[in-house]
UniProtKB/TrEMBL annotation, chains A, B:
A single Gene Ontology CC term: cytosol
GO biological process: NAD+ biosynthetic process via the salvage pathway
Record protein name field: Nicotinate phosphoribosyltransferase
UniProt keyword Transferase present: yes
The species this protein was found in: Hypsibius exemplaris
Pathway assigned to this chain's UniProt record: Cofactor biosynthesis; NAD(+) biosynthesis; nicotinate D-ribonucleotide from nicotinate: step 1/1
Length: 578, 578
C-alpha cells in the first residue's frame, strides 16, 4: 500500500485515515497465531481502576456511550526532538484477543465489593473489542509531542479498559526504539550495533522487548537468543571472561589437534599457536617499548585455541581478561596466524574494559604490523568490537578520538534507557457521545486537544523532506499537495505559517474495526525497521543533532485551533481578584 | 526453620550452608506448578555466547569439569548502603524446569555454524540441571557488595549456561525491592504505599515484576490487577480523570436514585449532593477568601455521585480534574455528606497534581471544618492519597513541609528505578576442578574473590543488631557465638577488627541439589516481605539514612584473606619500568 498522497485524495475516509475499500479485511484469522508474544499480556494486566470505572460507567447507564481516546506523549525523550513510535502490532494482538477468562472473572468477583450487581459480571465476562476501532500511525513512524499516535473509538467502558495495557505496550517499545535510533545516529550507518543488555534489563521481557525494538530502531542484532528465535533477529555472541578463566594452562588441554580446512592434514594447533606467539612477541615493541609479549597469559592462549578449534570460521576473541595490550592481542594474533595456516580467517577481537579509543587504535596498529610481517593482509581489517557500559555520549566521545572500532555491543544504558527510563505517553478521553472533552490544566503543555483528530505530514522539495505535521479534525478535508495551507501553532495565537507541500502523507491508518485486524496494512518487522531508517533520512539533520536540536513543528488547522480555543474558554474557570 | 545459630552449630554442612538432614527434600514436585511465572523465562532467554561457550567447553573435553560461580554485585544502588536480595524463587523455578525443547534445538541448529558436531546437539538436548547445586541467601535478605548472593556449583557448561537468566531474574527484582524499601523508609511505617506504575514500566513484566517485588520491599499493594491475581497482592484503584471527563452535566444523568443502607428508603442522591454543595460552598472561605464554591464543576459532581452510587463503601474521589480547591474538594464533601445521610462513610480523596503538601494541608483543614459544621467527625480523618511523579526525594521534601497525606501512589520513578535503572550483579567463575579462579583488574573494586565461600552475619547486643558480615571459605569452621573472631578488610591489609558476636547467622542455604528443590526452605511471599522489614529493623539507622549513610562492614576471615592475596600475587603480572 502507498500512503503517500501525491495526487487526488483517493481511498481516504472522511475521518482522515487511509482506508482501502478494494482490499477487504481478512475476515478471520486464528487467535492462536495473532496472540500477544508474552502470555502475560491479557485483560487483567491493567490498573484496577479500569474495572471499578467500568462498573461505575455501567451503573450510570453509560455502557453504550461512544468514546474517543487519544494516546500521545508531551515531550520527546532523551532531550531530543524526535521519537520512534513502536509497539503497535502487540497492541493489536492484545486488542484482538481481549476477553476475560473464567478464571479472571473469579478473581474479579473476589476483589469487587459485596453488593456489586451480578449483571455487571455478566457484562464484563461478555466484553469484547468487537465495537472498537483503532486508528494509528504506522509502527516505526517518526512522531512528535501531542500527536495522537493511536485513536481508539468505541463503547466508553471498553475503550477505557484498554488504557493501561496500551500505554505499557507503547511506552517502553517507543522509548527503547528511539534510544536505539539515537545511538545509530551517533555511530553512523557503517558501524555494526549489537544489543547485549538482557542481563541488566527490567525483567525477562524488558530484555526481550528491548531486543526487538532496538532492532526496529536501527541495531543490527542482539545477543538474546530467544529474541532471535521469536522474531528472527540476527543473534551474535562468542565468549565471556569466564571462558578464559576456565583454562588454567596449555599442558592440561585434552584437545590439541586440528585439521587443515582443505587437505585434512592434522596439526598440533596448540603448539602451532605457541610457536607463532613466540615469533610475534617482539613485534609488540612497535606499540610500546615496555610490552614484549612476556606477559602473555597461557590460560588465555589455551582458551583462545579451544575457542578457535570450535569456531574456526568465527574466531572472535575477548582480549581483556588479563591485559589487552600485554596478553590478549598477542594471543589472538598467534591463534589467528595458526588458523590461517589451516586456511581459516579469524574474525577479530572484543575489548570490554579500559580506554576503548586508545586500545582500539593500538589494536589496529598491531593488526597492521602483524598483517604485514606475516603476510595476512586481511588481518589489518580484523573486526574490533567494543563493549562496556556504552551509551550515546560515549560513542560521540569515541568518534572525537578517531576510534578504530567496527562494532559496538551496547547493554545496560540501551535496554534500561538509563538517561530517561520512561516515556510519558498518556491516554485521554477527547470525545464522548459527540461532545468534545477537554482536560484543563494550569500548565498549557498539559492541556489536551478535544475531538476526533487526524494527522498529515506535509513534505516539500522533492517530497522527501518533512516540513511540518498538521493535526486536523477528521471532518475537515485533507490538505492537498500543491495547495497552500495555513498552519497554526496549537497554543500561540500569533504563530501561523502558510505551507505549500509537494506531498501530503496521511499518518493515521485504520488497523482494527468490527473485530477484524487489517493484516494487509501491518508491515513486517523488517519493513518497520527499514521504514524507521527511511523516515529518519527525511528528517532534517538539525532536528536530530545531539546538542540543541531544533523542534520539529506540529501545527493545527485553523478550524481545529478555533474548536480547541473556544472549548478552553468555555470550560476554564474565571479567576477573581479582590 | 531457624537459621539463627545461637547454640552449638548443628545441622550445618561443611560447606557452611545450613542443611537439614532430618527434613528430607520433597522428592518430586510437579513441573506444572513450579514453573517460572513468565513463560518467556526459558533456557533460550540467554545470551548466545552461553551456547557457543558450551560447544567450545564440550569440544575441549570440559563438559564434566566441576565449576563454582558466584553471583554478586559491587555497589549498592541509589547511592545507598544496603540492598534487598530478591528474585530467588523465580531463579529456582527456572533452574528446576531448565530443558531445551525440540523447538529450541531446531533453532539452535539453525544458528550454529555448519560443521558443529552432531553429538553436541545431543548433549545440549539432554542437558539438565540435575548435577547443579544452588546455595543462596534467603530471598528478602539485606545484602552488601561482594557477598556471594547465589553460589552455583556443577558441570562447567551447565553452570555457565545459567548466567544470563539468573542475572536477569535477580538484578531487577533486587533493584526495585530496594527502591521500595527506601521509599518505605522515607514515608515511615504508618503511611500506606501503593504502586501505580504499570503503564510506565519497561514491558509487561517489568510492570509485573515491579508490583511483586515492591510489595516484598515494603509497599502495601498495587494497582496491577494481574499481580493481584497471580501473587495475591492487595490491589487498589478508584477512577481516573477520564471518568470525570466522561460526565458533562447533572441533568443528563440516567441514574439518580439511591437507597438508604438500612431503611432501603430511596432518595434523589444527585439532588441531595447538589443541596449539600450549595450549603457547604460558603465554608470554602475559611481556606481562602477567593474561593467560594462558585467554580465547582457540575460534570465533576455528576461523576462523583455516580462513582459513590457504585461504590458507596469505597468512595475515594480524584479531585484535581478541574481545580482541587475551587471544585474537587467541595464536590467530594457534598457527596460524602449525602452518602452519610444514607448511612455510608466516604473514604477520601486523591490529589494527582499541584503542590501536594499545600493541597493536602488545605484539604485536611477543610475536612475538619466540614466535619465540625455538618456533624461528620470521621470526615476530619478522611484519607488523603497523593500521586504524581513521586519519588524518594519528594517524600522527604513533603515530610519537611508537614504534609497531611495518608497514602502515596508511586509510579514511574518506583517501577523504572529512574535514579538508577539497573543493578550491576555479575556472575563470576571462582573455581574449576578444584582450582581457584580469579578475575584480575587494575581496579581493586573489580577483583573477584576465588574459591567456594560462604557468609555469616555476626550480631551483637541482644542479637538484634547486625555488626558485620564475614565471608569465609566453606572449608573453615563457622564462627561461634560468644567467641572472639578476627575479621579483616578484604583489600586493606591494616584494617582488622575483633568481633564478639552474640549470635551468628549462616546466610547461605542450600536450595537445590540432585534435581530437588528444598521447598520447605522457601518462605512464602508474605514471609519474605515480613523478613525484609524485620531485617531492616536490625540494621543500624546510620546505614539507612539518605545522606552520607555509613557503609556496613563486610569482612573476610584471615584464612580467606591469605588465600585471596596469595592468588592475586601469583597471577598479577609484574610491571616493568625502564
Amino acid at each position: 500500500m502507498n500512503r503517500l498522497l501525491d495526487g487526488p485524495v483517493d481511498g481516504m475516509e472522511k475521518d482522515g485515515a487511509v482506508n482501502h475499500t478494494v482490499e477487504v479485511a481478512t475476515s478471520f484469522h486464528d487467535k492462536n497465531t495473532f496472540r500477544p508474544t508474552n502470555s502475560l499480556v491479557q485483560p487483567l494486566l491493567t490498573d484496577l481502576y479500569q474495572i471499578t470505572m467500568a462498573y461505575a460507567y455501567w451503573k450510570a447507564g453509560k455502557k453504550d456511550s461512544f468514546a474517543v481516546f487519544d494516546l500521545f506523549f508531551r515531550k520527546n525523550p532523551f532531550d531530543g526532538e524526535y521519537t520512534i513510535f513502536a509497539g503497535l502490532e502487540e497492541v493489536l494482538r492484545y486488542i484482538y484477543c481481549f476477553r476475560f477468562s473464567e478464571d479472571d472473572m473469579g478473581y474479579i468477583r473476589s476483589i469487587m465489593p459485596a453488593g456489586t450487581e451480578e449483571e455487571f459480571f455478566q457484562y464484563l465476562a461478555d466484553m469484547t473489542t468487537r465495537d472498537i476501532s483503532v486508528y494509528a500511525v504506522p509502527e516505526g513512524s517518526i512522531v512528535f509531542p501531542r500527536e495522537p499516535l493511536i485513536r481508539v473509538e468505541g463503547p466508553l467502558p471498553v475503550a477505557q479498559m484498554l488504557e493501561t495495557t496500551l500505554l505499557t505496550l507503547v511506552n517502553f517499545p517507543s522509548l527503547v526504539a528511539t534510544n536505539a535510533a539515537r545511538i545509530r545516529h551517533a555511530a553512523g550507518p557503517s558501524k555494526e550495533l549489537f544489543e547485549f543488555g538482557l542481563r541488566r534489563a527490567q525483567g525477562p521481557d524488558g530484555g526481550l522487548s528491548a531486543s526487538k525494538y532496538v532492532y526496529i530502531g536501527g541495531f543490527d542484532g542482539t545477543s538474546n537468543t530467544l529474541a532471535g528465535k521469536l522474531f528472527g533477529i540476527p543473534v551474535r555472541g562468542t565468549h565471556a571472561h569466564s571462558f578464559v578463566a576456565a583454562f588454567t594452562d596449555l599442558t592440561s588441554l585434552k584437545n590439541k589437534m586440528m585439521k587443515h580446512r582443505k587437505t585434512g592434514v592434522e596439526v598440533d594447533f596448540v603448539a602451532l599457536s605457541q610457536k607463532y606467539r613466540a615469533e610475534m612477541a617482539p613485534l609488540f615493541q612497535v606499540i610500546d617499548n615496555e610490552i614484549d609479549g612476556s606477559g602473555a597469559n597461557n590460560g588465555e592462549l589455551a582458551a583462545f585455541t579451544q575457542y578457535a578449534m570450535a569456531f574456526p570460521n568465527g574466531f572472535l576473541a575477548l582480549v581483556d581478561t588479563f591485559d589487552t595490550l600485554r596478553s590478549g592481542l598477542l594471543n589472538f594474533c598467534a591463534v589467528a596466524k595458526a588458523l590461517a595456516d589451516l586456511d581459516y580467517k579469524a574474525v577479530g577481537i572484543r575489548i570490554d574494559s579500559g580506554d576503548l579509543a586508545y586500545l582500539s587504535k593500538q589494536a589496529r596498529q598491531f593488526f597492521k604490523t602483524v598483517a604485514n610481517r606475516f603476510g595476512l593482509p586481511w588481518l589489518a581489517n580484523a573486526k574490533i568490537v567494543a563493549s562496556n557500559d556504552l551509551k550515546e555520549e560515549t560513542i560521540y566521545a569515541l568518534n572525537e578520538q578517531n576510534h578504530q572500532i567496527d562494532s559496538f555491543g551496547v547493554g545496560t544504558h540501551l535496554v534500561t534507557c538509563q538517561k530517561q527510563p520512561a516515556l510519558g505517553c498518556v491516554y485521554k478521553l477527547v470525545e464522548v457521545d459527540g461532545h468534545p472533552r477537554i482536560k484543563l490544566s494550569q500548565d498549557v503543555a498539559k492541556l489536551t486537544m478535544p475531538g476526533r483528530k487526524t494527522i498529515y505530514r506535509l513534505s516539500g522539495g522533492s517530497g522527501n523532506e518533512a516540513l511540518i505535521d498538521l493535526i486536523q479534525r477528521v471532518s475537515e478535508p485533507p490538505p492537498e499537495p500543491g495547495k497552500r495551507i495555513l498552519c497554526r501553532h496549537p497554543f500561540e495565537e500569533s504563530k501561523r505559517a502558510y505551507v505549500l507541500p509537494t506531498t501530503v502523507e496521511a499518518l493515521h491508518v485504520l488497523y482494527y474495526q468490527n473485530g477484524h485486524v487489517f493484516h494487509d496494512r501491518l508491515p513486517s518487522m523488517e519493513d518497520v525497521r527499514a521504514n524507521v531508517q527511511r523516515n529518519l533520512v527525511n528528517l532534517r539533520n538539525d532536528h536530530m543533532r545531539r546538542l540543541n536540536p531544533t523542534p520539529y513543528k506540529v501545527a493545527v488547522s485553523p478550524d481545529l485551533y478555533d474548536y480547541v480555543h473556544d472549548l478552553w474558554l468555555a470550560n476554564a474557570p474565571i479567576g477573581e481578584l479582590s
